[in-house]
Amino acid sequence: MSKEDINIHGGIRTMAPAVRISNLAQRCVTVPDGCFVECGVWRGGCLAVMASIANTDGLNRAVYGFDSFEGLPPQTPEDSEDGQEFVGMCRATEAEVHETFTTWGVSLENTVLKKGWFNETIPEASKDMPSIAVLRLDGDWYESTLTCLEYLYPKIVPGGVIIVDDYLTWTGCKKAVDEYRALHKIDNILIETDPLGEVWWTK
């Protein structure tokens, strides 16, 4: 899949702007061995970018995509009410993810889709998941983000990367990340991909 393919289809298959797609690709080609994980797949655009690299870098990486495929869950008191209108939105289907992979010519052979709310799927799936090289979080709300961090961050390899799509967008997402980093004394520098939302750091 070429950069031209991503730019042409990006607005249809992913909500991520070009700068975040470019950053994701750069991170995926520079990390140690380990699987790629995305939590919050929507139509699978970013997941397809990750899978495309995983399929071609010679390391036989597995790729995991977690999504309810029912939209966003209800907010909790930890979230700001300014995102309330998004509850129930961001809904896509597994079929749309397959369509994205097919449209972009990316094989689904090494990609596993896990359907369900994060608090139902991630704790169990994380038990048998291999070490993680790239973890991309796009769960928007406090509890969704915190669940992902609690179960998946410990599996990230040294030199691996965590990308948080909504850190600068939603209050609950930022609160979950800040609390987790403080609790576990993580002082690795947060790098802004763009001033509108995404940050990332290297473990």
Automatic annotation (TrEMBL):
Protein name: Macrocin O-methyltransferase
Superkingdom to which the source organism belongs: Bacteria
InterPro entries in the cross-refs: SAM-dependent_MTases_sf (IPR029063), TylF_MeTrfase (IPR008884)
Organism from which the protein derives: Pseudodesulfovibrio nedwellii
Residue ranges of coiled coil: none
Name of a matching Pfam family: TylF
